[in-house]
Design goal:
Keywords: Metal-binding, Zinc. With 138 residues, the protein is an alpha+beta fold. The protein has five helices and six strands.
Length: 138
């Protein structure tokens, strides 16, 4: 828990009990999680508190949001904890059609995209859909 406290303090965020618990849950998950799924793990917490916690983590570069085509935003820990948009965890995401889980494929980076003059990129997301390794073995 001391390491999580240091990570939050280094980002200029007060390490409240809720922030520590949410960060610990996120860092120990293999797949991305929606706010609704997070609520199930924190039944006695208010949705607004969880939402503010996730949004704070996103603003300081601890988590990133994933639009996986389901219409529900998912969140996952950033591998580099950067707040820079240029170094913003640009990797593939995979959505399994069988188990419905979304995972970060951090070893597979999204290539640099050159846009026409006058266009400015602000965000990029690439989600591959198919059958994950776990479901493919069944």
């Amino acid at each position: 828990m001391e390491q999580i406290v240091k990570i939050l303090e280094d980002k200029g965020v007060r390490p409240t009990a809720m922030r520590l618990l949410v960060y610990k849950l996120l860092v120990n998950r293999e797949n991305a999680i929606s706010l609704g799924e997070l609520e199930k793990d924190f039944k006695t917490s208010e949705r607004s508190t969880l939402y503010r916690t996730i949004k704070t983590f996103e603003e300081i570069g601890l988590v990133h949001s994933i639009e996986d085509g389901t219409g529900i935003i998912k969140y996952a820990i950033c591998e580099n904890h950067s707040t820079s948009k240029e170094n913003n965890d640009l990797h593939l995401h995979f959505r399994c059609n069988t188990c419905q889980e979304t995972v970060c494929l951090t070893d597979y980076k999204i290539p640099q995209i050159n846009l026409p003059k006058g266009y400015i990129s602000e965000d990029m997301n690439l989600t591959v859909k198919g059958i994950c390794e776990k479901c493919n073995m069944d």
